[in-house]
Recover the amino acids of this structure.
């Protein structure tokens, strides 16, 4: 099984114009490639919501964050002022999440 490589990752993140203290959503988290790029641009502050239908994708990304030094809080992970919320759901449920 090969690892998925995000398509047009740099272009997508550049077009997003990520700003510190911003709130961003990756509604198809998958392996977290785009999410990690967004987190890097938050520069120590801001919030990301990662959503994926696959519980395995959520679990794997959570492990990546824990290894990177994020601490588990009640319903999110935190490193400095960055907060990461992870939801195992379909992006079509975004308004209820």
């Amino acid at each position: 099984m090969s690892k998925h490589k995000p398509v047009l990752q740099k272009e997508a993140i550049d077009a997003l114009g990520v700003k510190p203290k911003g709130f961003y959503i990756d509604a198809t988290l998958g392996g977290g490639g785009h999410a990690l790029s967004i987190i890097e641009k938050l520069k120590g502050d801001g919030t990301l919501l990662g959503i994926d239908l696959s519980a395995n994708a959520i679990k794997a990304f959570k492990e990546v964050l824990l290894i990177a030094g994020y601490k588990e809080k009640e319903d999110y992970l935190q490193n400095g002022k960055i907060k990461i919320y992870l939801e195992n759901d379909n992006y079509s449920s975004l308004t209820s999440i």
Observations:
- The mean pLDDT is 92.
- Residues 21 and 46 are 4 Å apart (CA to CA).
